[in-house]
């Protein structure tokens, strides 16, 4: 009885292997934007950046490429590069709100960091500025959240 199962098992393995290779042959390569988005969604920012930079070399005025690069640069703390990418988007199409909005948020984020640094360096020596920095941060938070 064992001799019946062995040929059936081998046959199933061969069919499985050929089915896998046929499936792999039918898979179309994904577009660079889909590939970059996939990396971005998995927080693989350097991989997404690599794909997007190659794409931006081929297509210089692609809003979505530069917007995603801006988002990557914000998430990796590269604020000057993010600023350049959002401004590039605005130069490409100034009627699209999302680059304006993200650039404004970036500037608020930079202002918060600057207020934090100023507070840490001066609060000990100057109580008046300690209060001012706290009020500034409070105002920035209120401006972002509306609360």
Which key terms come to mind for this protein?
147 residues; TPR_rpt; single chain; disordered N terminus; Serine Threonine Protein Phosphatase 5, Tetratricopeptide repeat; elongated; mainly alpha; 82% helix; 7 helices
Can you describe this structure?
This protein has 147 residues and is mainly α. It has a single domain, classed as Tetratricopeptide repeat domain (Serine Threonine Protein Phosphatase 5, Tetratricopeptide repeat, Alpha Horseshoe), CATH 1.25.40.10. The longest helix is centred in the last third of the chain and has 26 residues, at 97-122. The chain is 82% helix and 0% strand. It has helices spanning 2-26, 32-41, 45-58, 63-75, 79-92, 97-122, 127-145. Residues 1-24 form the signal peptide. Keywords: Signal, TPR repeat. This is Tetratricopeptide repeat protein.
Q: For the residues shown, what is the average pLDDT?
A: 82
Order of helices and strands: HHHHHHH
Number of domain modules: 1
CATH superfamily: Tetratricopeptide repeat domain
Q: What's the N-to-C terminus distance?
A: 77 Å
Shape: elongated
CATH architectural arrangement: Alpha Horseshoe
- Gyration radius, in Å: 26 Å
Keywords: Signal, TPR repeat
Pfam families: TPR_8 (PF13181)
Protein name: Tetratricopeptide repeat protein
Signal peptide: 1-24
